[in-house]
Each structure stands twice: as C-alpha cells, then as structure tokens.
Amino acid sequence: MKRTVFLLAAAMLLLLTTAAFASQTDLEQLARQYVPQDAVFERTERDDGLQEYEFRSPDRSVTYDVKINPDTGLVVKVDYDVRNDRGSKNVILTEAQAGEKVLELYPGAEITNVLLQRDDGLQEYAVLFTAADFTGKIELNPETGAVLDRELDYTRSGESASGPLTAEEAKAFVLAKVEDGRIVDFETDRDDGRTVYEGEVVSGKTQYDFEIDAETGALLKWEIDD
C-alpha cells in the first residue's frame, strides 16, 4: 500500500513538473512573437508578479525585454533597449518627420504627441502614439532618425484606446519619462470642459511641467526648465 501511495505521489509530482515546464515553454514562445525572429534568448526571471523574458540581437546592439502576466498569459509590456542610444546636438528632423518615422514602423497608429527633450546634454525626440492593441513611446535621434528606445505598453489593451487614465497611472507615466524624477506638484483640474492632470516633476536641477488629458491619456504639455 505504501509503495502504491509513493508511486502515485511521484506520478503527480512528475505531472505537475511537466505542466509547469510546458507553461514556461508556452510563455517563452509567446514572448518570441514580440521580438525579431533572429533574436537570441538570454534569460527569464520573475519580477513584481510578472515573468520577464530577455532576448538580444545577434550583434548584441539591442536588448528586448518582454513582460508577461503568468496568471492571464497576456503580454503586458515590451521594451527595446538600444546600446548606443545617444541623441544629437543637432536637430534636423521636424516634429512631423519624427512622427512619420514612427508611422513607418506602425502603420495605422495615431500620434498623440511629439516632444523634443534633452538627455545627458543631447537632444532626442519622444514620440507618443496609440495603436489597436497598445500605447507606445519611441525615442528618436533628431538628426538621423535612428530609434534610440522603444516602449510598448499592452496593459490598456482591451479597453478603448482613448479610455480614462487614473491619477496613479498618470503619475507612473510621468515618472517613467524622467530618470530619478520626483513629483513635487500634482493636481486634477478642469480645462475647456475636460479633466486634466497637471503638475511638476524635478530631477536634480531640472524641472518638468506636464499636463495630461485624463480622458484620453494624451500628453498635452511637457516643458523642460534647466
């Protein structure tokens, strides 16, 4: 009888281990659908309840990070990190041309804002846009048009692309744009019949003034004061 119980327990453990392995394999295959075909798998880890899968390009110039909710099996966020992601002192492209560069990558997307910002003393464009299944931000070199960084957020997929944004989501969005940023002022206001979030973020000696449409999530103002 004891031998039978032991064999049953061993069989159950094997089934559970196999199921877990299959689940991890399925998630990795899902993550691969969001990166280039030649991307090389590097590692996976669990962070804040999400399973992260890291890939790299064959020449190691780009790192791809795909975050998946293991409970739902849905992709939450995809980041492309370019190694030589430096901007330029020269601004050759116009805001319209920067937006066109993004539309070449994602035809049918809607550009919600184009911002010229400074990072490490160099200029770069941050282009915000919405597509059918995600919202995104792409940073471009304003001289060459090269992609410096790409963030695709799928957490609001399944909702209206113009769905309302909570105050906490607005704060998280702003802080994601500023390294070591700290919100010193945040208010909810009404402007021309619409609800907006406005405030200030500081990082070192730099101040950022922002205004966000609470209904659409569009960034209405982004001013940098050095």
Could you describe the 3D structure shown?
The protein is α+β, with helices and mostly antiparallel strands. Among the domains are: 2-80, Nuclear Transport Factor 2, Chain: A, CATH 3.10.450; 163-226, Nuclear Transport Factor 2, Chain: A (Roll). 23% of the residues lie in helices and 44% in strands. It is built from three helices and twelve strands, in the order H-E-E-E-E-H-E-E-E-E-H-E-E-E-E. The chain has helices at residues 2-32, 95-105, 167-177; strands at 40-47, 50-56, 62-69, 74-82, 110-119, 122-130, 135-140, 147-153, 182-191, 194-203, 206-213, 219-225. An eight-stranded antiparallel β-sheet has the order 1-2-3-4-8-7-6-5, with helices on one face. A four-stranded antiparallel β-sheet has the order 9-10-11-12, with helices on one face. The longest helix has 31 residues, at 2-32. The radius of gyration is 21 Å and the shape is globular. The termini are far apart. The model is unreliable at 1-22 and 157-162 (pLDDT under 50).
